[in-house]
Amino acid sequence: MDYVSSRDEKRDVFSFEQVLMEGLARDGGLYLPNKLVGPKDKVSLLKNMKYAELASELMYPYVRPSISKKCLQDLTIKSYSNFADEKTAPLIEIAQDIWIMELFHGPTLAFKDFALQLVGRLFSNILQKHNTHITILGATSGDTGSAAIEAFRGHKNVSIFILYPDGRISDVQRKQMTSVTEKNVHSIAIEGSFDDCQHLVKELFNDLKFRDEMQLGAINSINWGRILAQTVYYWYAALKFPLEKKGVSFSVPTGNFGNVFAGWVAANCGLPIDNLIVATNENDILARFFNSGIYKKDSVIPSISPSMDIQVASNFERLLYYMLDLEASQVKNMMHRLGEINEFSVDESKRSKCADMFIGKSISDEVTLETIKKVYSESGILIDPHTATGVAAANHLCRYEDKKRPVVCLATAHPAKFPEAVKKATGIWPDLPERISDLMERKENIIRLTASTKDLKAYLRKNSNTK
């Protein structure tokens, strides 16, 4: 499979290995495959596959020839063998036609483990093959950081630096990063919002001299390897339903747009998805776009679902590329407008080609708490506030759109990662799973920096083990 950058008018091609290791294209664009391919007539054969087997089958066309099929099969088996539930991503019906898919049974209790456990092993395979070192730099609004650290901790070929907004993630999310003791791990609290952290990462990647000096690699959802891995659980869930009768819809708690874009990729590879509900909190730039065609930045509003407190959704550029008929020059113009005047718009004729599948719905903190309470009272199941935005949006669709079909809500985090919100809604403090029950007693090592590229560069130069 060849890959291109969303901003490259010449359409130079790249291998999967290059795309995985670089993350962000050198022109500032995002990598995308030259074509989207699916299993075609193999769909009936996929239904009874275990999760790891399904992952290798769906992903192999996108990783060859960089990764052999046998190697990919081995890596997927290892990646999902440490998930706590034997079904890996179990489905539970919580109301008529509304299901949740639990994506929090990985080692860090969040859906990011589905991609990063595998991506970490893909990185290591390539680095060992070339006997080289990489400096991974990423930003997190909560869950990506701990999942990335868990995937790369102790790897001799990797130094990993994760930026998070100081005071704007949950205590559990912070502890999962700052209590890790391996010397190759650096968790850095940045004074500001997640968007500030994300901006710093992009600034350093766009400084090509520094990028080459430090051998920077990206593990944020801008990395295509993560998007590819996340397409799998859409197939895994949808194949549990009789697809010949009616399509399945998915309600996706959405911040950086990577998770729901993976669903769009799955749909365009042949999976019969009816709608993708883009469930946001009050940071509703994406919900507004799908309702109006205007993508306009605003100030970040702190919420009880902090992983979604984002105004600039990096992965949206990928969908924009398809909306604009693969015209890289138009994508560049749009992104330039966003940088200059904080907004752009896409007319209906172009938007409808790709965006008709999406339904945008913003959910307030009040409704989020009401939903956590309602789900618990009716089903006995505790859900975290991010998952609750997805359930609330799904309820809205079923009630007001009058569409009778299964809706799968992605349960993106264990409720114990956000205990304050869960207790406020239900009166119950959710316990951490036994395997990390001592987390809150672990010693922390917190590094604090201002949102300064100069300071961040100095820290990376001093602390990376780049050869």
Give your account of this protein's structure.
The chain has about 475 residues and is α/β, with parallel strands linked by helices. It has a domain at about 90-105 and about 225-425: 3-Layer(aba) Sandwich (Rossmann fold). Helix content is about 45%, strand content about 15%. The protein has 19 helices and 15 strands. It has helices at about 15-20, 45, 50-65, 70-80, 110-130, 145-150, 170-180, 195-205, 210-215, 225-240, 260-270, 285-290, 315-325, 330-340, 350-355, 365-380, 385-400, 420-425, 455-465, and strands spanning about 5, 30-35, 90-95, 100, 135-140, 160-165, 185-190, 215-220, 250-255, 275-280, 295, 345, 360, 405-410, 445-450. The strands form 4 sheets. The protein has a 6-stranded mixed β-sheet, with helices on both faces. Helix 5 (about 110-130) packs parallel to helix 6 (about 145-150), helix 6 runs parallel beside helix 7 (about 170-180) and helix 10 crosses helix 11 (about 260-270). The protein is globular and about 55 Å long.
List keywords for this structure.
globular; 467 residues; alpha/beta; Rossmann fold
How is this structure best summarized?
This protein has 467 residues and is an alpha/beta fold. It has a domain at 91-106 and 227-426: Rossmann fold. The protein has helices spanning 16-22, 43-46, 51-63, 69-80, 112-130, 143-152, 171-178, 194-206, 208-214, 224-238, 258-268, 285-292, 316-323, 328-341, 348-355, 365-379, 385-400, 419-426, 453-463, and strands spanning 3-5, 31-33, 91-95, 98-102, 134-139, 158-165, 185-190, 216-218, 248-253, 273-280, 294-296, 343-345, 358-362, 407-411, 447-449.
